[in-house]
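Recall the central idea of this unit: under ordinary conditions, the amino acid sequence of a chain determines the structure it adopts. In this exercise we apply that idea directly, starting from the sequence alone.
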Amino acid sequence: MARIHALEAAALIYACAPHGRAMLTQAQNRLETLQPLKVLESVASESFELL
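Accordingly, the structure predicted from this sequence is:
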């Protein structure tokens, strides 16, 4: 589902914003940076539930 939304958003950005590609790349980089934090949060939550 998220991938479909991302593809639709990319198409809209390319069609409507001349600088959309740079914005999309920046957003993708931010998401990649946040992924390890999501994993860390998940592991920490599971660990603290066990206490």
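The mean pLDDT is 84.
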